[in-house]
Design a protein that fits this description.
alpha/beta; 12 helices
Length: 300
């Protein structure tokens, strides 16, 4: 199957001085990402501090994006929660706004649960939303969730809900796992979580990446995608990988937010919610270097 590769951004969530979600900055950041070349956004994922936001906050912020001019067709918001009722509410809300799809974590507090239970959790959401237009992307991040999305689980879900399961984001860090998903299920869109894997992902038949560092380097990642298979691909890959490597050595979410703040000349973007804390002087030079390597974020 031939598909157009994409870069989606798990957009950071800006906070106001009082700790509330800053809708104006959220919209501005979203517009900047799309203008710089991102194909779309996956707000309310790990990088977005989604699990530090209430259901009401997530709904209000998503509505603000759409009302602020972001086409819902380029949005795949995260809706996975521990409570099925919360996941159903967020998923139905996203569908009501016309979002392209939803990215859904499995219930993640209880560990060591059987695959039957994880299947039942996804089935409950799909059947409760009861929308033939729902496009659900599975979110595999076992190092955080403790609940893996296995090949056998994907197979079962596709058999039960073939028109609903649209793809998977693999944040495991294992290329072998990503490749196995792509090879076993070519009919769905499989995204890597690192732009450094884009050439491998796309060559294998994958859909591209949903990457935290795309908050800082969307233009560079888009140039890599557009430059696949032509002269200069190696240099484009090295550019995005160099930026990515810096963030891999830092507290990821606070560092991404600090870099965006530096790029925009607005330190309010660096605010985080507990349990995170803002980066300090020890990380300042590395963050500045990441911003320098990313360069101007203008459309390719």
């Amino acid at each position: 199957m031939t598909r157009r590769p994409e870069v989606f951004v798990p957009a950071i969530t800006p906070f106001a001085q009082d700790g509330s979600v800053d809708h104006a900055r959220f919209i501005a950041h979203a517009k900047g990402l799309l203008t710089a070349g991102a194909h779309g956004m996956a707000p309310f994922g790990t990088t977005s501090e989604a699990n530090s936001l209430s259901v009401a906050e997530r709904m209000a912020a998503l509505e603000a994006l759409v009302e602020g001019g972001i086409d819902p067709a380029v949005l795949i918001p995260g809706t996975g929660c521990c409570a099925a009722a919360d996941t159903v509410a967020l998923t139905a809300h996203a569908r009501g706004l016309g979002c392209r799809g939803v990215l859904v974590l499995p219930p993640f507090y209880y560990k060591g649960v059987p695959e039957d239970g994880v299947f039942a959790a996804y089935a409950e959401v799909i059947e409760a939303v009861a929308d033939a237009g729902l496009r659900l992307y599975l979110y595999h991040i076992p190092q955080m969730s403790g609940v893996p999305i296995t090949l056998s689980l994907i197979e079962r879900l596709l058999k039960a809900y073939p028109g609903t399961i649209a793809g998977l984001k693999d944040s495991s860090g294992s290329w072998d796992n990503t490749r196995a998903v792509i090879e076993a299920f070519p009919q769905i869109d499989t995204y890597s979580a690192s732009e450094s894997l884009i050439p491998k992902n796309v060559a294998a038949g994958g859909a591209g990446c949903i990457s935290a560092s795309a908050n800082v380097n969307p233009a560079g990642i888009r140039r890599l995608i557009d430059g696949l298979g032509i002269e200069g691909e190696g240099a484009l890959l090295e550019q995005v990988s160099a930026v990515r490597r810096i963030f891999e050595g830092l507290p990821l979410i606070p560092a991404i937010k600090a870099a965006v703040a530096r790029q925009r000349g607005d330190m309010a973007f660096a605010r985080v919610r507990p349990p995170f804390v803002e980066t300090g002087a020890a990380h300042e030079a590395a963050i500045a270097e990441a911003v320098r390597l990313a360069g101007p974020q203008v459309a390719p």
